[in-house]
């Protein structure tokens, strides 16, 4: 789950991470009131959307104008910028051409920037450890730095048995060229940064840029915070920060129905139980010449109602030309899934080809239920057979 910059900064601040003073605003009047609480004379008006590259982005109603992050020097200019930004669509490299509507702003104090750095915490799948990444190339997209200047990315993995120690931060500080009291400030910053990451069950915390001020302070000028969805059950306060308007409507429906769904840009809808099997299903669809429209894992406790909801979400995607159901019956038995598929097909009046592959517990009973349903369900004997049939069905529709 992702949250907005201002929400991330509020959480990080609780752990002692240094951030600038700022206030969220939903109207130009609130933006003006927020600016009056800040010392001035410099203010920063920041669009709050779940996408990077806001400063370099452009609004669709003013493509040649200023971006989604604006530095101004008066309270009047804050209100003027807020009026221009709120309710309009901001297009960045990460939003795609459709962009995202700006519904809230963060009005922040100006900052005396001496240097811009980069820092992030994430789970490194190769080492199975929390890893700190840092770079002198703050303000740039880290993907571009990794591609063109990989030597400028510093990495330090934290042993989970020993945990974080100050020497991890000092090693990075020296690599970043920090000196004197900057090293101590950076060490304090990283210690708080790490504790927040662990305590809040984060998936990634990124600050770009992390700035060194003229006074030698280390300040988070930005904050991208993402959480492990599987741990949200123990962070109800964080789950309450979710901004539904930033989510794909289909993905939001899936969250509300305890389904693991990710929208993609293909043409074959997938309903599978188990993340690994879902990935294999998407891969084999590509192998046979088509592309998946989604990742959807109904889990091991799928019921007829959840299967119906899964079908409803899949078919709400206008790009879906066929559906592949791939189930390995275990906890979710094949007969239960088959009953759900039949009920969902009848309830929704499914109009696209449907291929079903069942294997595992009660598979013969499941196949019997499908065969006797009277519906135009295409059975498959194995995964390869299922993929070939659903791709052929799509080509026939096209």
Automatic annotation (TrEMBL):
Cofactor: Mg(2+)
All copies of domain ATP-grasp, residue ranges: 9-236
Residues that bind Mg(2+): 208, 222
The organism's place on the tree of life at top rank: Bacteria
Binding site for substrate: 273, 330-332
Record keywords, A-Z: ATP-binding, Ligase, Magnesium, Metal-binding, Nucleotide-binding, Tricarboxylic acid cycle
UniProt cross-references to InterPro entries, sorted A to Z: ATP-grasp, ATP-grasp_succ-CoA_synth-type, ATP_grasp_subdomain_1, SUCC_ACL_C, Succ_CoA_ligase-like_bsu, Succinyl-CoA_synth-like
Catalytic activity from the UniProt record: GTP + succinate + CoA = succinyl-CoA + GDP + phosphate; succinate + ATP + CoA = succinyl-CoA + ADP + phosphate; (S)-malate + ATP + CoA = (S)-malyl-CoA + ADP + phosphate
Cofactor binding: number and manner: Binds 1 Mg(2+) ion per subunit.
Record bears the keyword Magnesium: yes
UniProt binding sites for ATP: 46, 53-55, 108, 111, 116
GO cellular component, one term: cytosol
NCBIfam families: PRK00696.1, sucCoAbeta
Primary role: Succinyl-CoA synthetase functions in the citric acid cycle (TCA), coupling the hydrolysis of succinyl-CoA to the synthesis of either ATP or GTP and thus represents the only step of substrate-level phosphorylation in the TCA. The beta subunit provides nucleotide specificity of the enzyme and binds the substrate succinate, while the binding sites for coenzyme A and phosphate are found in the alpha subunit.
PANTHER family: SUCCINATE--COA LIGASE [GDP-FORMING] SUBUNIT BETA, MITOCHONDRIAL (PTHR11815:SF10), SUCCINYL-COA SYNTHETASE BETA CHAIN (PTHR11815)
The family this protein is said to belong to: Belongs to the succinate/malate CoA ligase beta subunit family.
Name this protein carries in UniProt: Succinate--CoA ligase [ADP-forming] subunit beta
Organism listed in the record: Humitalea rosea
Lineage of source species: Bacteria, Pseudomonadati, Pseudomonadota, Alphaproteobacteria, Acetobacterales
């Amino acid at each position: 789950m992702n949250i907005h910059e201002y929400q991330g900064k509020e959480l990080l601040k609780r752990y002692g991470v240094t951030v600038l003073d700022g206030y969220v605003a939903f109207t130009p009047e609130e933006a003006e009131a927020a600016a009056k609480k800040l010392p001035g004379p410099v203010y920063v008006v920041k669009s709050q959307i779940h996408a990077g590259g806001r400063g370099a982005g452009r609004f669709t109603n003013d493509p040649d104008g200023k971006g989604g992050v604006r530095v101004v020097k008066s309270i009047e200019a804050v209100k003027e910028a807020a009026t221009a930004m709120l309710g309009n669509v901001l297009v960045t490299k990460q939003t795609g051409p459709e962009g995202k509507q700006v519904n809230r702003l963060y009005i922040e104090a100006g900052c005396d920037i001496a240097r811009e750095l980069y820092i992030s915490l994430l789970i490194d799948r190769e080492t199975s450890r929390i890893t700190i990444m840092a770079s002198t190339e703050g303000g740039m997209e880290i993907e571009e730095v990794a591609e063109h200047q990989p030597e400028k990315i510093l990495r330090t993995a934290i042993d989970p048995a020993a945990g974080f120690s100050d020497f991890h931060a000092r090693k990075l500080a020296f690599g970043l060229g920090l000196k004197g009291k900057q090293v101590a400030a950076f060490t304090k910053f990283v210690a708080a940064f790490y504790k927040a990451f662990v305590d809040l069950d984060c998936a990634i915390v990124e600050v770009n840029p992390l700035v060194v001020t003229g006074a030698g302070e280390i300040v988070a000028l930005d904050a991208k915070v993402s959480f492990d969805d599987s741990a949200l059950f123990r962070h109800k306060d964080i789950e309450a920060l979710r901004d539904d308007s930033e989510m794909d409507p289909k993905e939001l429906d899936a969250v509300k129905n305890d389904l693991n769904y990710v929208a993609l840009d293909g043409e074959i809808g997938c309903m599978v139980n188990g993340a690994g099997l879902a990935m294999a299903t998407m891969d084999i669809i590509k192998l046979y010449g088509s592309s998946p429209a989604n990742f959807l894992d109904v889990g091991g406790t799928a019921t007829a109602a959840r299967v119906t909801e899964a079908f409803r979400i899949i078919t709400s995607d206008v790009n879906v030309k066929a559906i592949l159901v791939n189930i390995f019956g275990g906890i979710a038995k094949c007969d239960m899934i088959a009953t759900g598929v039949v009920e969902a097909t009848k309830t929704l009046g499914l109009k696209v080809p449907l291929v079903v592959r069942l294997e595992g517990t009660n598979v013969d009973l499941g196949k019997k239920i499908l065969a006797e349903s009277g519906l135009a369900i295409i059975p498959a004997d194995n995964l390869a057979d299922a993929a070939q049939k659903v791709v052929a069905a799509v080509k026939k529709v096209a």
